[in-house]
Amino acid sequence: MIEIKGIHKWFxxxxxxxGVDLTIRDxxxxxxxxxxxxxxxxxxxxxxxxxxPDEGDILIDGKSIFSMTAEEQDKCRLQLGMLFQGAALFDSxxxxxxVGFSLIxxxxxxEGVIDQKVREKLSLVGLAGIEDLMPASLSGGMKKRVGLxxxxxxxPKSILYxxxxxxxxxxxxxxxxxxxxxxxxxxxxxxxxxxHDMTSAYKVADRIAMLYRGKIIATGTPDEIRNSKDPxxxxxxxxxxxxxxTDLLKTETELL
Length: 256
Fold this sequence. Notes:
With 256 residues, the chain is of the alpha/beta class. The chain is built from eleven helices and ten strands. The protein has a domain at 88-155. Strand 4 and strand 5 (63-64) form a beta hairpin.
C-alpha cells in the first residue's frame, strides 16, 4: 500500500501541490488525471523520493520513505518500477544494458541471471530478440516498451507510469494500455498511471483521481468519473473548451 498524506510542494513561490491525499491499495491501478503542468509528474517524483515535500509524508507499506536512510531509500526504489514519459533510455547503452541497468548498478546479481531476466522481460512486452540493438534504432513505441521492460526487470511491487501514451499514435498507445493491463494481471503489482489521455485512463484504471489546482478534487471508478456532476471534472474528461477551468484561466490572465 502507498499512502500519500498532505503533500505540499513549492517551486520559486509557486504552490504546486497543496495538500495531496491519496491511498493506493496493493494490486490496484490508480490513474491520476489532470491538465499538463498541474503537478502529476511532481507527485510521482515524491513517491520515488526524487523530490522531498515541504509538508506532508508518503508511507510505503506503512513506513515513511522520507524518514528512511539513503540506503533504505535505495532498497525501497528497487521495489518501485518507473516508466518515464520519454522512456529515458540511455543512448550509449544497448537494450540489454538499459533493461538490466538497475540490477547491474544496484545488486550483485550474476551476469547470466541478469541476461535471463532481460530476455524474459523483453519477451513479456513483445520485444524478444532485440537485446543488442541501440535505442537510436527503435521506434517511439518500442522505446516505451523497452522502458517498461526496464521498470519490471527487478520485479518490483509497484509500477509508476508517467504519461505512458504521450507521443504515440492511437494503435501504439493502445498497445501500451494493453501492456499496463497485462502487467497488473500477471505481476499483481500496484500501479499508478499519470495521464491526460482519457481513453487510456478509462481502459486501464480501477480508480481515477483528478488533480486540480494542487489538490485531488475527485476520485472514483471510471464510470463514476465519466458521469461526475462536478463541472470541473466534466470539462476535463470531455475535453470541452468551455467551462470553469478555462473561465478561471481567463480571469487570472485578465488580472495579470
